[in-house]
User: Fold this.
Amino acid sequence: MSDNLHQAINSGDSDEFVTVTIADQLFGIPVLVVQDILGPQKITKIPLAPAEVGGALNLRGRIVTAIDVRRRLGLAPKDDDAECMSVVVEHGGELYSLIVDAVGEVLSMSADTYESNPPTLDPTWREVSGGIYRLNGELMIVLEVNNLLSLKSLAA
Assistant:
């Protein structure tokens, strides 16, 4: 977990997350790293790019790399005709579009409901998870954007 996220969680304050759904699993992206939310976009494929790179899109004149989070998490791809949404984040001075199934609401979570990753969490998911929050009947996995976009991980 990043030091910033860990400090925010342990500050005793609430933490805010943009919720996204990927393959019926709820994830939270810290609101402070989210630059924009986009509806369905035209994504241009990039030849010879890693499988997780869905392509590139144009965001107000800037070329943004689109990351297929389903593939990054080792999940089956979505049907070609299914519409997706994008959460734009910044990493290393560049903008990335995280392609997700759906974007939900912004949740304010109390730091005392935070838990470390359970030992049963898939190793690929554990690598990109900053911990979990238990909600009514489901878990929200916190996406650690820096780990999700790690070039070493994408190349592997």
Residues 1-11 have pLDDT under 50 and may be disordered. The first strand starts at residue 14 and ends at 22. The chain has five helices and eleven strands.
